Amino acid sequence: MYSIPMHPKLGISLACFVVVFACTLITDDLSLMAIQPPSTSSKPNDKGDAPPEKDGDSKGDSGAKEEEMKGVVEKVIDGDSIKVREEGGSEVHEIQIEGTDAPEAKQDYGAQSTEALRKMVLDRKVRITWTKKDNFGRRLAQVYVGDEQINRNMIRDGHAWHFKRYNQSKELAQLEEEAKKSKRGLWGRENPQAPWDYRKENRSPDKPDR
Q1: CB-based contacts of 69: which residues, under 8 Å, 6+ apart?
Q2: Which CATH number goes with the domain that contains 197?
Q3: Which residues, 6 or more positions from 103, have their beta carbon under 8 angstroms from its beta carbon?
Q4: What is the dihedral of CA 140, 142, 145, 151, to 10 degrees?
Q5: pLDDT tens digits for 181-200?
Q6: Spatial CB neighbours of 190, under 8 Å, sequence gap ≥ 6
Q7: Is residue 86 part of a domain?
Q8: Tally of structural domains, the chain
Q9: Cα separations in angstroms, 72 against 15, 39, 69, 147
């Protein structure tokens, strides 16, 4: 078979054309891949891409429904917790006075704090409102005797600290500042220790019988 001879320069030019054409095809394919939108049917992976579900009892859940209970205080446990017998029933509930943290039983001013709360609520009818509970199932509540809110009164009179870690009430913060300036209650002591610091130093503090 007869073959037509090819000039060397023509062969080189043809080879270069083939290479350039192939590179162009590859570039076009990559461009198409880059502009394609991601699939909307993809699922979150197992590493937590999906947002966690909200817990209705979590702290700061502003959408939680407020609940209410009426009853009589049967026992004052310490300066920030009480036991209430529900009105019209026999069930007794342990209540945490929300936004307050009182000195522990064996801490300085612990007995005075407990006694102050006892004078305010023991054997008296109370109204309890709450939107959440703590990790032990206790209601974190606003406690009222008539129109008097016990939470604010305990802080106002210097019988408890404002528990700022879990409560950001500006009113309670202001009441605490006023109690400090006036040296009311525990603020009359020299260098009073915060209950949370006391608990940290005493990992197993004695607790009243609950």
Answers
A1: 84, 86, 87, 93, 127, 128, 139
A2: 2.40.50.90
A3: 79, 109, 110, 113, 160, 186, 192, 193, 195, 198
A4: 100
A5: 999 999 999 999 999 999 99
A6: none
A7: yes
A8: 1
A9: 98, 61, 10, 16
